C-alpha cells in the first residue's frame, strides 16, 4: 500500500520506506541516509535496531545531553582544582542546549583528517580531487569515496609552508563517519577524528589537563579512554597507559 514519505512528501511503497520507532512516520530509506543493507536490517521484524527520524532524534539527543550535563555536575564535585571546576560548573541553559545539539548535528557528517600530505597542484579542483583520492587510498575503500560531498571537502586554515593543514571531509551520512572511525587504524602518523564542537573541545582539553595534573601528583592507576573522540579518565588495573597521540 502506497505511503507518503514524511521528509520529501512523495509517495512510496512499503518496502521502500522505514518507520520511525518513536513517532511512527514513514520515511524513504534514501531520505533517511541509510544504505539498502542498513534499511533492510532496520525493517527486520526480529531486529533490535531502532530508527528515529530527524525530529525525534533531536528529542533523544536533548535528553542525552541533559543527562550528560548531570554527569558533568557529579564529575565537577570530584575535581581537585578550583579553576577547572569553575569552568565545568557553568551549566548549559536551555538555549545553549538547543544550540549545542544543532551544532553537533551539523558537524555529525564531518570527518577531520590530520597530517595528510597536501597536493602540490595550484588549482582548487585538482588539489581537492587529490585529497579525496588520498583519503580513499588511506581507508582502502572506494565505497567511502562515493559518499563524500565534494563541495564540502576542504583544508582548514591558511596554507603554511612545510605544514600540513587538517582536511575536513563531509559525507552524506553520519553513519559513514562512525563506520570509518571504527575501522581505521592510524598509519604514517595520519589520524582521524570527528568534527567536535567548541564545547566538546573545551571539555576534552580540561579533562586532559586534569589527567596530566593527576599523573604528576603520582596517580599511576588511571588512563585516558576516548569515546567518539572525547576523553574520559578511567581507572586501570596495570601501569599501561594509552593516550591518543592526536589529543596529547
UniProtKB/TrEMBL annotation:
<keyword id="KW-0479">Metal-binding</keyword>
<dbReference type="GO" id="GO:0008270">
    <property type="term" value="F:zinc ion binding"/>
</dbReference>
<dbReference type="Pfam" id="PF00628">
    <property type="entry name" value="PHD"/>
</dbReference>
<dbReference type="InterPro" id="IPR019787">
    <property type="entry name" value="Znf_PHD-finger"/>
</dbReference>
<keyword id="KW-0863">Zinc-finger</keyword>
<dbReference type="InterPro" id="IPR001965">
    <property type="entry name" value="Znf_PHD"/>
</dbReference>
<feature type="domain" description="PHD-type">
    <location>
        <begin position="2"/>
        <end position="59"/>
    </location>
</feature>
<dbReference type="InterPro" id="IPR013083">
    <property type="entry name" value="Znf_RING/FYVE/PHD"/>
</dbReference>
<keyword id="KW-0862">Zinc</keyword>
<protein>
    <recommendedName>
        <fullName>PHD-type domain-containing protein</fullName>
    </recommendedName>
</protein>
<dbReference type="InterPro" id="IPR011011">
    <property type="entry name" value="Znf_FYVE_PHD"/>
</dbReference>
Amino acid at each position: 500500500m502506497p505511503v507518503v514519505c514524511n521528509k520529501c512528501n512523495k509517495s512510496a511503497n512499503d518496502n521502500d520506506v522505514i518507520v520511525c520507532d518513536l513517532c511512527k512516520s514513514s520515511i524513504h530509506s534514501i531520505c533517511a541516509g541509510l544504505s539498502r543493507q542498513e534499511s533492510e536490517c532496520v525493517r527486520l521484524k526480529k531486529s533490535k535496531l531502532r530508527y528515529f527520524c530527524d525530529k525525534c532524534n533531536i528529542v533523544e539527543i536533548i535528553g542525552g545531553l541533559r543527562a550528560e550535563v548531570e554527569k558533568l555536575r557529579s564529575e565537577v564535585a570530584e575535581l581537585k582544582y578550583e579553576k577547572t571546576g569553575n569552568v565545568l560548573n557553568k551549566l548549559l541553559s536551555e538555549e545553549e542546549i538547543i544550540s549545542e545539539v544543532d551544532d553537533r548535528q551539523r558537524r555529525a557528517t564531518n570527518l577531520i583528517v590530520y597530517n595528510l600530505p597536501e597536493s602540490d597542484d595550484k588549482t582548487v579542483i585538482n588539489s581537492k580531487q587529490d585529497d579525496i583520492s588520498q583519503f580513499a587510498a588511506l581507508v582502502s575503500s572506494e565505497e567511502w569515496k562515493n559518499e563524500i560531498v565534494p563541495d564540502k571537502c576542504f583544508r582548514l586554515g591558511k596554507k603554511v609552508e612545510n605544514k600540513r593543514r587538517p582536511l575536513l571531509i563531509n559525507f552524506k551520512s553520519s553513519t559513514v563517519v562512525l563506520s570509518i572511525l571504527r575501522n581505521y587504524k592510524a598509519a604514517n602518523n595520519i589520524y582521524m577524528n570527528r568534527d567536535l564542537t567548541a564545547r566538546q573541545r573545551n571539555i576534552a582539553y580540561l579533562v586532559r589537563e586534569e589527567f596530566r595534573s593527576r599523573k604528576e601528583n603520582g596517580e599511576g592507576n588511571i588512563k585516558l579512554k576516548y569515546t567518539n573522540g572525547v576523553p574520559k579518565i578511567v581507572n586501570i588495573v596495570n601501569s599501561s597507559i594509552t593516550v591518543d597521540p592526536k589529543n596529547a
